[in-house]
From TrEMBL:
Source organism of this protein record: Lophiostoma macrostomum CBS 122681
Disordered: annotated segments: 11-30
Residue ranges of every copy of the Glutamine amidotransferase type-2 domain listed in the record: 2-232
Keyword Nucleotide-binding part of the UniProt annotation: yes
An MF annotation (GO) of this entry: ATP binding
Annotated keywords: ATP-binding, Glutamine amidotransferase, Nucleotide-binding
Protein name: Asparagine synthetase
InterPro entries linked: Asn_synth_AEB, Asn_synthase, ASN_synthetase/amidase, AsnB_N, GATase_2_dom, Ntn_hydrolases_N, Rossmann-like_a/b/a_fold
Length: 691
């Protein structure tokens, strides 16, 4: 993985000197070029944690395009793998963040069709050759996680693209007549960007569910999309891939065993591809089935099929990394991970996290994530990524994406039960039982969210739910809202309904599929992946906390060859009703596909979400830290919160053990940290609103 920062001048052509003028004013042009190079280098400094091994930049002869790159060397460690990349005619230039799997096959195919001369062995170099042959259609050829920028000087076309699930980030903004793009928003700070809060996005959760972020005017290239800037003027964003599901009315003719084997083989293939690197490769291991089956399959591939694991630094044992909370916290799964590690015979590294450790990393982890999270699990993930770094690893495999694709979250249950699964005729769940269980699981979901400090008043009928075929998953996705803390003047943004933000961010074609074609479970999986997966789980629990410590995480469960197969399965092989035990088995087909590679304990275990504790003692490290961050002066400096609604929050969180107040306190404290670290301008009411 790497870091990207790019600049594209958007001024009209008339404002740029002609070639003759530039030749006659070489000194001025040289000074401008030097200043641009210095700016770009300062921008790269802000994200140097993403690529500590080397950096490079390219600036067009007319100074209108600048590409910058910091490198975390994973494949082809030689200088030939350094970026930016250029074609032989020096007309197509690219910077790439991520990993392109199957690049050897792509390279061989291109060498049989073109006379393109590759410089080195880097997986990312294939991007330039693919673009030159296929044009914009090259994106559909890529398999992996990536964010990239290409400039084609022949056609004056600039392209910025992001992988199918948004595993790798790409932000953009316009400042002082320039289009800026980067892997993290902090890279914009040396480029003239002056951050302001996007209060409307904070209130309606647009930062989590559409193109917006916490910062006004800063957007993100959405997963499966690419942005183009033609001739330094026209900027557009288009989609090249989307999640799809089968028609719910058509029975699936496949047997259970055929589907299980189909999942198993695709999982093994996705993992096999992700073992390839010129550096050591390890595995993140928790107490759940997702990471455990990855560890089991890696061990099988290395020991039984003699697959190479990274650079084979340690071929005797697979290396796994884990995190542990205090045993009495109720959130510790390390004992199960220990037993899994012993069963597999892997080398196991574990980092213990207590309240002091969480408090010590809170501010730095927040700075790296660039958005809030009502749970401290992101601080735990930030600490976890220190472990492989400390023992010399650069690459880990991780289990993100399994719950989203195999329906592992309990919030999916009511939507699975909302309609009969006619695609699976042998479903053991009777109609009468389905109706009763739908009511029960909805009540259970409401009770769970209430117990962890969430708002459950949003679970009734709504326009947003009607748009999305009445799924309640969107109610769960928006359960943690701090809108009650906002200043009165923020009412100028109108009715800010996060559920409606989710519904409205789905395009018309997909809304029709949700209401007419897809089963409600698949509709729920779709909106969850477009929102929470892309903008929380793959950011503060993924890329941002991993790359903060220069760790590349690979996500086999988000390999699109695997997910497209899984998306085509009937809902009832993802969630299976056990008629004998009168209970549901989540991720049933994943369990069956994983069975040869995991322990019986994990095969039988129910899903436990990765979370950090939500109650902490008075006068402890977190109480002291948050008391210093949540003060009247600091809260009023934000501008969009009402101190009168926040005063007493710390007491309710720590003295009264109110989990809702604790999550509110986490969020407000994170906004304070972001505001201070980024130097965000105080939010003010519009002039027409008055005081």
């Amino acid at each position: 993985m790497c870091g990207i920062s790019c600049i594209v001048g958007l001024q009209p052509r008339s404002q740029h000197p002609s070639t003759d003028q530039r030749n006659g004013n070489a000194t001025h042009n040289g000074n401008a070029r030097q200043a641009l190079s210095k700016q770009l280098d300062e921008s790269l400094n802000m994200i140097k944690h993403r690529g500590p091994d080397s950096r490079g930049q390219w600036i067009s002869p007319d100074n209108r395009v600048a590409l910058g790159h910091v490198r975390l060397a994973i494949n082809d460690l030689s200088p030939d793998g350094a970026q930016p990349f250029h074609d032989g005619e020096d007309m197509v230039h690219a910077v790439v963040n991520g990993e392109i799997y199957d690049h050897e096959a792509l390279r061989a195919s291109l060498q049989g069709k073109t006379d393109y001369k590759f410089k080195g062995r880097s997986d990312c170099e294939v991007v330039v050759a693919l673009y030159k042959y296929y044009g914009l259609s090259f994106l559909s050829k890529l398999r992996g996680e990536f964010a990239l920028c290409i400039y084609d000087a022949r056609t004056q076309l600039f392209i910025a693209a992001r992988d199918r699930y948004g595993i790798k980030p790409m932000f953009y903004t316009q400042t002082n007549g320039r289009l800026l793009l980067a892997a993290e928003a902090k890279a914009f700070l040396p480029l003239g960007w002056e951050p302001e809060w996007d209060v409307g996005s904070l209130k309606d959760a647009g930062w989590n569910h559409d193109v917006r972020t916490l910062f006004k005017g800063v957007g993100k290239v959405r997963p499966g999309h690419y942005l183009t800037c033609q001739s330094f003027d026209q900027i557009e964003m288009r989609q090249y891939w989307d999640i799809d599901y089968p028609d719910k009315t058509i029975p699936d003719p496949r047997s259970d065993q055929e589907m299980i084997e189909g999942v198993r083989q695709r999982m093994l293939d996705a993992i096999r591809l992700r073992l390839r690197a010129d550096v050591p490769v390890g595995v993140y291991l928790s107490g759940g089935i997702d990471s455990s089956v990855i560890a089991g399959m890696v061990t099988h591939l290395v020991k039984e099929q003699e697959e190479r694991l990274g650079n084979d630094k340690e071929t005797d044992r697979v290396n796994c990394f884990s995190i542990a909370f205090d045993e009495d916290s109720g959130f510790d799964e390390s004992s199960i991970a220990n037993r899994t590690a012993d069963h597999l015979g892997v080398k196991y590294y574990k980092k213990h996290m207590n309240e002091k450790e969480l408090a010590a990393r809170f501010e730095d982890a927040t700075w790296h994530c660039e958005h809030h999270n009502p749970d401290l699990n992101y601080v735990g993930k930030y600490a976890l990524s220190e472990v492989p770094q400390d023992v010399g690893f650069k690459v880990v495999l991780t289990g993100e994406g399994a719950d989203e694709n195999f329906a592992g979250y309990p919030v999916f249950l009511p939507d699975y039960l909302r309609e009969t699964d006619t695609a699976y005729p042998t479903n053991p769940l009777p109609y009468s039982e389905r109706e009763a269980q739908c009511i029960k699981t909805e009540e259970d979901a409401s009770a769970y969210y209430k117990s962890v400090g969430a708002d459950t008043s949003n679970r009734g009928p709504s326009q947003a739910r009607r748009i999305l075929n009445d799924i309640t998953t969107i109610s769960s996705m928006t359960a943690f809202s701090v809108n009650s803390l906002f200043a009165t003047w923020t009412q100028c943004f109108g009715l800010c309904d996060p559920q409606l933000t989710i519904a409205n961010s789905v395009d018309g074609r997909v809304r029709d599929m949700i209401t007419e074609k897809w089963h409600p479970l698949h509709a729920a999986e779709y909106v969850w992946q477009k929102g929470h997966l892309a903008n929380i789980f793959l950011t503060c629990l993924g890329d941002r906390t991993e790359l903060a410590h220069s760790i590349e995480a690979r996500t086999p469960f988000l390999d699109h060859h695997l997910t497209e197969y899984v998306n085509g399965l009937p809902p009832s092989v993802k969630i299976r009703w056990d008629a004998d035990k009168k209970q549901f088995i989540e991720k049933w087909i994943l369990r069956e596909a994983s069975k040869p590679f995991i322990t019986e304990e994990l095969y039988q275990r129910k899903k436990h979400p990765y979370s950090a504790p939500t109650t902490y003692p008075e006068d402890g490290p977190l109480h002291i830290l948050l008391s210093g961050l949540i003060t009247k002066e600091k809260v009023e400096k934000l501008g969009f919160l009402d101190w009168r609604k926040i005063d007493g929050l710390i007491d309710r969180a720590f003295a009264k053990k109110d989990p809702n107040a604790m999550r509110f306190a986490f969020t407000v404290a994170q906004w304070v940290v972001i505001g201070e670290r980024f130097g965000v301008k105080r939010a003010e009411p519009p002039l027409e609103y008055g005081v």
